[in-house]
Amino acid sequence: MRGLDIPKNVRIKPPALIAHRGYALRYPENTLESLEAAIEAGAAYVEFDVQLTKDGVPVLMHDADLWRTARVDRSILDITLDQVKDVWVNETARFGPKFGEVHVPTLAEAIDLLKKHPRVTAFVEIKRESLKKFGTNPVVEAVMAAIGKAVSRCVPVSFDLEAIRRARELEAASVGWVLSEWTLLVREAAERFQPEYLFCNYRMIPDEDALWPGPWRWALYEVVDPELALGLAARGAQLIETMAIGEILTDLRLKPGP
Length: 258
What we know:
Distance between the termini: 30 Å
CATH superfamily: Phosphatidylinositol (PI) phosphodiesterase
Shape: globular
Structural class: alpha/beta
Order of helices and strands: EHEEHHHHEHHEHEHEEHEH
Helix content: 25-40%
Number of domains: 1
CATH topology: TIM Barrel
């Protein structure tokens, strides 16, 4: 899906912006440093990924494999929280020696950060690798327990429909389904389940297709161009997810209103 071409003199209601893995363009992803930088840049929404350690603790991590972010040849699913504390996710392949001892945050630590910023809402993506290894119920229950009283400001999301179904049963205030396909069967499943949010890579949506109408809000990712963000908003996307939250907010047309 491409955005509509918006004339410069036409005002489009700016979409809400979600900081994808925090300010991941400039900081190691899924770290407290990245989340804090995104909030400082003006993000009202952040998104981060959650995996479980061997001893069942939810931590912020996109890949199960630690190699990309930490240059450690292990899976986070196979090590304990105590072992995780010795892992530095400073992403030297991207940043070189710029960042030093950047640790893997627990979900509880991320929630503590949110408590300092009451205007910020977090989308908490429950990763499929953990669900496959440990089972839906143990993973979702651990995530919801860590969210605790912050449930009104945390939205569990996942590619796995059963995971967000379980989160809803555990009284999540709202949930989001991340689409892995753009098909009639997926649309029908969304209409039956009716999540509050639908997430989708904008490139997956055919240019000739409209966003499916429903009770949900659309969040399209991964967008770094302000013109594209506005064009997708004109086609019905209420939220835009970006790793470049600071850069995209420099466009005054994307500044949130008062």
